[in-house]
Amino acid sequence: MTALFALATSLLWGLADFGGGLLARRTPALTVVVVSQSIAAVVLGAIVLVTGAWSEAGPRLWFAVAAGLVGPVGMLAFYKALALGPMGVVSPLASLSIAVPVAVGLVLGERPGLVQFAGIAVAVVGVVLAGGPHFRGAPVQRQAVLLTLVAAFGFGAVMALIAEASSTLTGLFLALFVQRVTNVVTGGTALYVAVRRGSVPPPRIAWESVPALAFVGLADVAANGTYSLAAQHGPVTVAAVLASLCPVVTALAARGFLSERLRGIQAAGAGLALVGTVLLATG
């Protein structure tokens, strides 16, 4: 069951990332974040009411609030990076988010083993190879790599914070709901300021885009749920490794739907980033 739930997580996260990046190519990334997370917040609110998850409220929900403050920054950076592309490089680099929980472990007194050190080294080499070809005469692509690294840090911070926000399944529903509400408030405020300054056009969402936005928001929520189930039914290490394959799903979707082609060195760098991620998780 652990493998099944974890693979479902990688599929959902990968497709959500692909959908969000695709939407951000024709709609401002900040609008995509706010609208998709608003839909997710409404659905999660209904789940919280049905399950009675309000009874799980406590001081630990402040971790969910913190995750909600960090999350929009990571999502905005990631969607902008995906819009710049290529997705086949951007998505694997974002999987380096797992380095953040490792760093938190170091602060708390844990010491990584040889495998984790190897993972860090391999991941760094992957970043250099995947980003290197973009640094010559292509400042936009350099921006995509930097945005992806910001997104990776944000995603990793959210993972670490949400892990502290709940200890039960119903508690997880409530924590995710609080996180989404904070996402919407934070992102909505940023969107309002951006519109007032004229840097972003007023939000205009075509009705035909609503299903895609709903899918992005709900797939992200569902992925959090399936990952929680995977971790509860078996080793967290196995769940983390299999769930970290989500960039492969995004890359395959980009290749299948957008016919993206990567240079050899880019593909090698993206592959090494994934290998480093796996080593970090298994170490």
Strand composition percent: under 5%
Low-pLDDT segments, ≥5 res:
133-140
The percent range for helix content is over 70%
Could you say which structural class the secondary elements and strand pairing correspond to? Answer: mainly alpha
* Gyration radius over CA: 18 Å
Give the count of helical stretches.
12
N-to-C span: 22 Å
The largest pleated sheet is described as:
none
Elements, N to C (H/E): HHHHHHHHHHHH
Mass-distribution shape:
globular
Number of strands: 0
Total tally of structural domains: 1
Mean pLDDT: 80
Pfam families: EamA
Keywords: Membrane, Transmembrane, Transmembrane helix
Domain EamA: 3-130, 144-281
Protein name: DMT family transporter
Give a written overview of the molecule:
The protein is mainly alpha-helical and 283 residues long. The protein has one domain. It has helices at 2-23, 29-51, 61-84, 87-94, 99-107, 114-131, 139-165, 169-197, 210-233, 236-243, 246-258, 264-282. α1 packs across α3, α3 (61-84) runs antiparallel to α4 (87-94) and α5 packs across α7 (139-165). The relative contact order is 0.24. Residues 133-140 have low confidence and may be disordered.
Write the layout of secondary structure elements.
Layout: H1 2-23, H2 29-51, H3 61-84, H4 87-94, H5 99-107, H6 114-131, H7 139-165, H8 169-197, H9 210-233, H10 236-243, H11 246-258, H12 264-282
Keywords: Membrane, Transmembrane, Transmembrane helix
InterPro entries: EamA_dom, EmrE-like
Organism: Streptomyces liliifuscus
